[in-house]
Amino acid sequence: MDRTLSKFLKAMYSARIVAAFVLLALVSLSFAAAGAKAGCAVPLTTVKLPAAAPAGQPPFVAPKPAAQTNDDWDDFDPHPIVGLWHLIYTADSVTGAPGIFPPTPPNFAFLESYKTWHRDRTEFENAFLDPKGGNICFGVWKQTGERSVQLHHIGLMFNTDGSVKAVFTTDETNTVSYDGKSYSGKFTFRLFPPADVYGTGPAIVTVTGTTAGTRITVD
């Protein structure tokens, strides 16, 4: 009888040890899972986690940033000029040194290009010109109205040996159509000596005219 009771007690003790190990393993796994989930983006050692929300309440939500000014926009409301365009520049006047540009009949075709307006207020243009002479310029722009912008961009012209021949700038004011498929405006092109890298001195020649852009879309 005593031997039977002794075997029974030993079996119960072994079962308790096994159950304790199982429980300990489950608790360890749950902490490991919670740690892996919380530390996926940032180390737990550098971040103080907020206390859990009481039952029935929504989880913690970070407050919204301060309201943007009228000169800014959110991710879902870029200025309508942002995107890729096909541009036609039509000149109506040329002043400055003769011989740099051909004779100027009224409203002559000045330039054709592809132009990209970026939402960070930079701009890139690839003109339909021989790249050896320079056909790339970069710009910065600001919003002047709900559909209007002002642009200043700058580029280089090169000699056949690769040296800089001239610096040029173009200043534009453009307004996008209500349907967002086109824009129009005015431009002033200025040509400067190669040493005037910012294009701020006296211009060698000045060309003014109009712009006409047609949006290029994915479809």
Quick tags:
single chain; 219 residues; alpha+beta; Lipocalin; 2 domains; 39% strand
What's the rounded overall pLDDT mean?
Answer: 76
What is the tally of helical segments? Answer: 1
**What is the succession of H and E elements?**
HEEEEEEEE
Which shape, going by the Cα principal axes?
globular
CA(first)-CA(last) distance: 90 Å
Strand content: 35-45%
Query: What does the largest sheet look like?
Result: 8 strands, antiparallel, barrel
Spatial strand sequence of the major β-sheet: 1-2-3-4-5-6-7-8
CATH class identity of the largest domain: Mainly Beta
Radius of gyration, in Å, reads: 34 Å
Q: Which fold name corresponds to the CATH topology of the largest domain?
A: Lipocalin
* Estimated helix fraction: 10-25%
Domain module count: 2
CATH architecture of the largest domain: Beta Barrel
Contiguous low-pLDDT stretches (5 residues minimum) are 17-55, 64-76
> What's the count of strands?
8
| Structural class estimated from helices and strands | alpha+beta
Characterization of the model:
- This protein has 219 residues and is an alpha+beta fold.
- It folds into two domains: 1-66, no CATH class; 83-216, Lipocalin.
- Helices cover 17% and strands 39% of the residues.
- It has one helix spanning 2-38, and strands at 83-96, 108-117, 122-127, 136-143, 148-158, 164-176, 182-192, 205-216.
- Strand 3 (122-127) and strand 4 form a beta hairpin.
- It is globular and about 45 Å long.
- The chain starts with a helix and ends with a strand.
- The model is unreliable at 17-55 and 64-76 (pLDDT under 50).
